Amino acid sequence: MMKIGISLVFCAFAMGLIPSDPIARTKSLVAQAELEAETLGGLQKAIADKEVASKILVRQELEDAKNAAIRQEEAERAVLAEKEAQNQLQKAEFAQEREIEAEAAQRVAKAASKIAEAKQVDAEILKKEVYI
């Protein structure tokens, strides 16, 4: 087992994956650490961006929900206003019908009065004829 590990290390040195020079090895480790730091920084930035995007998305969803509620209220108000207008129209039609009925009753009363007056005149004429 140990021979395999030594063989792998030797192969890595031979392929140039692990520099044999300590300064080069240190530079390689520093470059690798910088790359990892950049990657970590990128990840942290990505996480921060994701959090900001999530907050923006939540705000947009809240705004959309608020706007939907406002539109719903406006629709309900419009329905209520339409019902109120229909109710007022029905009341106006009812009042107009009552007014027409009252006017007709007045005309009937006037006609009845004229008929009664005419009958009275006829009765007086008949009385005068009877006395003559």
Quick recap of the structure?
By secondary structure, the protein is mainly alpha-helical.
Number of strands: 0
Please identify the oligomeric state: single chain
Beta strand %: under 5%
The helix fraction, in percent, is over 70%
| Domain count | 1
Evaluate the radius of gyration.
Answer: 52 Å
The geometry reads as rod-shaped
Overall mean pLDDT: 83
Q: Report the biggest beta sheet as strand number plus sense, adding barrel if it closes.
A: none
Q: Which series of helices and strands comes N to C?
A: HH
Instruction: Give the helix/strand class.
Output: mainly alpha
Keywords:
single chain, about 130 residues, mainly alpha, 2 helices, rod-shaped
Secondary-structure blueprint of this entry?
Blueprint: H1 2-15, H2 22-131
